[in-house]
Write a structure and sequence with these properties.
44% helix; alpha+beta; Protein nucleotidyltransferase YdiU; binds adenosine monophosphate; single chain; EC 2.7.7.-; nucleotide-binding; binds magnesium ion; six-stranded antiparallel sheet; two-stranded antiparallel ribbon
Length: 491
């Protein structure tokens, strides 16, 4: 029997913010994926555990000793409309562990059955979407983007009713925490000011301990969360990542990417790109993500007003507003800093913003593959124009911009191969291409074949390293395949 040194600080410190619940008994748990590297990072002594044992432990069949499953309460603005009571309708926090780096991490099941927050849902999850969460999470991790990760995916052996019957699965999620903007909204809406204050202090202690003794710590919390979101969203934008459901319950206060539902990476660059089948108005389109993050932060700020100024919450509005309005600048700073590294630049110039905007406008105008355009720009640093030029209808449409980018590298302080190598460390070759993700999910879900998922994970584990034999993992789908690609919510 494996031993996990669980702690339960959330349950202990925040009574009233959760409901105890038990997972359902899966009829025939079978391990689809085990993240040995993450298990090691968490310090779990699972090296000796059999696949069958891991499948039982991480599906709810027999919980690891010390687990105290709870469903967390939260609210959330979903597509702009407020749902005052959401909460974990199909997830259970088993507890927290301290990882090898001394960081507290949540271990939670997703798809383990109904809870007090399930409303009309069945509390279940199915193989396809859980493998999507696994693949996208591992890709983000390898790209250096803060993210929750999957420790395990277990097929339950149960048929789950969706638009048709699909194989059920439970994913074990590891997160810096599951504290969300929606967690604060829940207690603000229900007028539970005591719990709200405890929640804010808990969030500070867990994610922003440097603020703990500040006089204006709740205002500082807003500022610190805004800063992490600014950096995170800038990374999403450069990676071409579209979250798909940036509801306030899906924005983590830790600054990790969380709740991979209908998320996807875009191929052809365009600000209006939307994949989610439920995002009819394009609220969460690629180009809207920074503005939506700011909107979500404004909802977070509203919950903090009574903590910032308990006697007169209204008096806190100007200071909070200043932070929310300042998000645009914070975002732009990260976006430009990250772009300079992608461009192979070591210093900053005011003209860089125009250079970046012009580049992205070119990609959008000609529907150029976002990932390959950045990647092949590195070739240009070595004087090899062919691969980049081939992405455009003709080399001449790119030429004026390329001249500017080349001039920006004068005077050159590094050798061309060094610039190219540095750029290749910033611009990935392998991202989870939609058609490859779909192929992997279909093989696993329809044919019980995990092969394509494992090969894809292998390619994505070193996104910056071009490797022989992985050519098809670098290429976008044919336009007729990419056209009309839709992702569906992870229910
Ligand atoms: P999501 O869109 O996955 O972030 O989920 C939004 C809300 O719906 C959360 O409160 C979930 O717990 C809940 N939910 C999603 N799917 C289910 C399901 N199959 N059964 C019960 N609740 C669900
Ligand atoms: Mg969610």
């Amino acid at each position: 029997m494996i031993h996990i040194a669980f702690d339960h600080s959330y349950a202990r410190d925040l009574p009233g913010a959760w409901q105890a619940a038990q997972p359902d008994m899966p009829p025939a748990p079978a391990l689809l994926f085990w993240n040995a590297e993450l298990a090691d990072e968490l310090g779990l002594d699972t090296a000796q555990a059999s696949a069958a044992e891991l499948a039982r432990l991480f599906s709810g069949a027999s919980l690891p000793p010390g687990a105290q499953p709870i469903a967390q309460a939260y609210a959330g603005h979903q597509f702009g409309g407020l749902s005052p009571s959401l909460g974990d309708g199909r997830a259970l926090l088993l507890g927290e562990v301290i990882d090898r780096h001394g960081q507290r991490r949540d271990i939670a099941l997703k798809g383990s059955g109904r809870t007090a927050f399930s409303r009309r849902g069945d509390g279940k999850a199915v193989v396809g979407p859980m493998l999507r969460e696994l693949i996208l999470g591992e890709a983000m991790q390898a790209l250096g983007i803060p993210t929750t990760r999957a420790l395990a995916v277990v097929a339950t052996g149960e048929a789950v009713q969706r638009e048709r019957q699909l194989p059920g699965a439970v994913l074990t999620r590891v997160a810096a925490s599951h504290l969300r903007v929606g967690t604060f909204q829940y207690f603000a809406i229900h007028g539970e000011s005591e719990t709200l204050k405890k929640l804010a202090d808990y969030t500070i202690a867990r994610h922003y301990p440097e603020l703990a003794n500040q006089d204006h710590r709740y205002l500082s919390l807003l500022s610190a969360v805004a800063e992490r979101q600014a950096e995170l969203i800038a990374r999403w934008m450069h990676a071409g990542f579209i979250h798909g459901v940036m509801n306030t319950d899906n924005m983590a206060l830790s600054g990790e990417t969380i709740d991979f539902g209908p998320c996807a990476f875009m191929d052809a660059h365009h600000p209006d790109t939307v994949f989610s089948s439920i995002d009819h108005t394009g609220r969460y389109a690629y180009g809207n993500q920074p503005a939506i993050a700011q909107w979500n932060l404004a909802r977070f700020a509203e919950t903090l007003l009574p903590l910032i100024a308990p006697d007169d919450p209204g008096s806190a509005v100007p200071a909070a507003t200043e932070i929310i309005e300042g998000f645009a600048n914070r975002y732009q700073t990260h976006w430009l800093d990250q772009a300079r590294r992608k461009f192979g630049l070591l210093d900053a110039k005011a003209s860089d913003k125009q250079l970046l905007q012009d580049w992205l406008a070119l990609l959008a105008a000609y529907g150029v593959d976002h990932t390959l355009a950045w990647r092949y720009l590195a070739d240009e640093a070595e004087g090899k124009p062919d691969r980049l030029a081939a992405l455009f209808p003709s080399a001449s449409v790119l030429e004026p911009w390329l001249k500017q980018w080349q001039n920006r590298h004068v005077p050159r302080t590094r050798r061309p191969p060094d610039i190219a190598a540095a750029m290749r460390r910033e611009n990935p070759l392998y991202i989870p291409r939609n058609h490859l993700v779909e192929e992997a999910l279909t093989a696993a879900s329809e044919h019980g074949d995990m092969g394509p998922t494992l090969t894809l994970l292998e390619a994505l584990s070193q996104p910056f390293n071009e490797r022989e034999g992985l050519e098809r993992y670098a290429l976008p789908a044919a336009p007729e395949v990419a056209e009309g690609y839709r992702t569906f919510c992870g229910t």
